Amino acid sequence: MFMPNKLEADVLIIGSGLAGLRAAIEAASVDNSIQVVVLTKVHAMRSHSVAYAGGTAAVLYPEEGDSFDLHAFDTVKGSDYLGDQDAIELMVRIAPQEILRLEHWGMPWSRRPDGRIAQRPFGGHSFDRACFAADKTGLYVMQTLYNTTHKYDNIEIFHEWYVTSLLVEDGEFKGVTAIDMKNGEFYAFEAKAGIIATGGAGRLYSFTTYGHSATADGLAMAYRAGIPLKDMEFIQFHPTGLVPQGILISEAARGEGGYLRNNKGERFMKDYAPQKMELAPRDIVSRAMMKEILEGRGFPGPNGLDYVHLDLTHLAEEVIDEKLTEIKMIAIKFGGIDPTKEPIPVRPVAHYTMGGIHTDVYGRTDIRGLFAAGEAACVSVHGANRLGCNSTMECLVYGYLTGKQAAEYVKEKSKSDPSSELILTEERRIFDGILRGGNGEDPYLIKKELQNTMSKYAYVFRDGEGLSEALKRVRELRQRFGTGRVMDKSREFNQNLINVLEIDMMLDVAEVVLVSAIARTESRGAHYRLDYPKRDDVNWLKHTLAYKTVDGPRLEYIPVRITKWPPAERKY
Amino acid sequence: MSVDKEIEVRFKIFRFNPKIEFAPSWQEYKVKVNRSTTVLDALLKIKEEQDPTLAIRYSCRQAVCGSCGMMINDKQMLACFTRVLELGSDVIKVAPLKNYRIIKDLVTDFNELFQKEKQVKPYIIRHDLEELLSPTGTYKQTEDELLRYIQFADCIECGMCNSACPVSATDPLYLGPMILNRAYRFISDPRDLGFEQRLKVIDSEHGCWRCHFAASCSAVCPKGVDPAKAIQLLRRALVKKAILGISSSKKVELIPMEHIKGKLELPRGWR
Description:
The complex is a heterodimer of chains A (572) and B (271).
Chain A: E1 5-14, H1 18-30, E2 36-40, E3 56-57, H2 68-78, H3 85-104, E4 119-120, E5 130-131, H4 137-149, E6 155-159, E7 161-169, E8 172-180, E9 185-196, H5 217-224, E10 229-230, E11 235-242, H6 252-255, E12 259-261, H7 282-294, E13 308-311, H8 317-323, H9 325-335, E14 344-353, E15 356-358, E16 370-372, E17 377-378, H10 390-411, H11 420-437, H12 443-457, E18 461-462, H13 464-481, H14 495-519, E19 528-529, H15 537-540, E20 542-547, E21 554-559
Parallel strand pairs in A: 1-2, 1-9, 2-6, 9-16, 15-17, 18-19
Antiparallel strand pairs in A: 3-5, 4-5, 7-8, 8-9, 10-15, 10-20, 11-14, 12-13, 13-14, 20-21
Helix pairs in contact in A: 1-4, 1-10, 2-3, 3-10, 5-14, 8-9, 12-13, 12-14, 13-14
Chain B: E1 7-15, E2 25-33, H1 39-49, E3 69-72, E4 75-78, E5 91-95, E6 102-104, E7 107-108, H2 111-117, H3 129-133, E8 137-139, H4 143-150, H5 160-164, H6 166-170, H7 176-187, H8 195-202, H9 216-220, H10 227-244, E9 254-256
Parallel strand pairs in B: 1-5
Antiparallel strand pairs in B: 1-2, 3-4, 3-5, 6-7, 8-9
Helix pairs in contact in B: 7-10
């Protein structure tokens, strides 16, 4: 009889970015008898949170005019009124504590001359409230959190373990199945509580700021376990992706005074957001850029990646050398451009998944014992469009909230074992069905076609016809993918197998994005329909929930929670 | 931007699965690259279009996650941070980082290094434990104080310094430049009070005195960190303590922030 390898934890966290590591620290600090495990498919410190440059938003100086209400309102307005206001109010209140905790744990926040934490302007925020550490904020925050996990003997990190499914029975979370990539061993990892913190779905697109690891695994696993994915039609396209690689040129470049120019040298944002100009929210800037490009005022780029210019040449060299060092490095090394002398070629780029695993205001899913936090979750605090510096704030706040709740939950919870049938089915699916058997076309070709399809039809501007064409193609790709074909038959570090499992997950999530986007016949935030160019609060002030069925996603809708700010026209 | 010309180059790649093979081998691939193709791009092109069995560790592709350190033409380099054509060679030789156990092909085992790192307590050590978890303000830190340690905080743990270090090559117990640098990053932070607690490990025969000052660690660092300098500064701190009998007694001012107070009621369990 098949006996799976078994391991146990109290709180099991999937993913080691900001949200995952923050949750681990919080859960471990509640009580040192609680065993906390982090499973991560990369080395923990290499999660893509390291790449964020800009900062983390929080109200630090109310005596200078900022306030929780102002931060919350900016976020609500930025979300195009789709964000849940009770959650937003909760988040902005906790945010300053998180900034200070990090500060106490060693975070090298940039400082004011008096030794307090400095803040800078960021798009869509009406007060300078972005805490930052030069332009390597993400690296330092990740380092601070990863280092701090070492303080706790009750945190164990399993580097390069790939989680393949959630073990859920009777509406209760019981653990996960996972592969230890080093030797290919399959495990059932049993736990009383789980937190999904696996990040977003950016690799659904070919031109993207995300690292290669952002393949939407956690979203697909939750969806397959019966949890709905919420608001997946809302994908943020950041205005300034470096052409052709897609590497992010942080909003800090515009925060420090950078201009966007078309091929006539004009600062075209004057026609779209005369007040905020380059610092309007991302959806608005991205649409403006694409309009310029589509109307012939861009520059021709390779593989159809036409672009506009991000001009920093008028900034003092000290500003670039001291505050934008990483941007300078990226421009020189990857673009072959010295930004003090030449403008940088940029174009809107897939950057953030506003949607995600449906949770309540505290990060709880519909499954008892299972939480989701960070970009993988959709609370929703970002609604239809996220403001810069609010995502990392969400990761910290919801890492804290879910870590704390998970720890409290396991204290009162006795363990219930998952059935071995559930584990065995997953083991057979992967090892008999895919690794030893397996059929279908070249999975890497499928991935490339998937990314090209999404980039073409589900980008900044969308319409019903294009989205339907994309859905047809994605469903064909699903057929052609088969079970997934693996060429590498070895056990040790079988990345080929992992890639196939990832692409399988991406196909599921892409279908949800498209079905949700086709259904939403309005334009709101990052979801802009050329055939329905207006926001429609009468019919669409509601969240999409997509449930998995054998016939594809089934959609339901739930209302937006409004506390203080009734929907109004969004002008910048 | 003009359309880039593609050039075919040859890659000679180290292949080895120590679990099932007796000895490593070299495999050759031809791949088309242009001006902006990095070594990582080329390796992924090989993996996705020619040979899916090739194992490579990679993630961010923008030189900040530290995954893809490897030997490129016999030098420690990040594959994503090296453009193929800037190497100026017709044949590009790619092998796993030296001084690490090989898991498969270009993928090396970092677990030992990560375990060893814990010995130096790589985190802020303070005695105001309540304040650490429930902050009431910010510790004051001037730009000058920050500059004392920030360079050493730029480490992305790619592990290339340890791979280049001649001492790490011969003494498996040596802490090595990456970990000693990390230790100094905390010791030089005015907020940290853990110097004494780290002494035993740093001031040992496998600690900072073991360094020969070859400085090859600093030469290969892709982020401009200077671990060799960190090790020298660690030694200075130890000597100062031995001679003067004092370690730095640091005092940090807490600037209170009123508005962050307030208790949070969280739900218990499930509805």
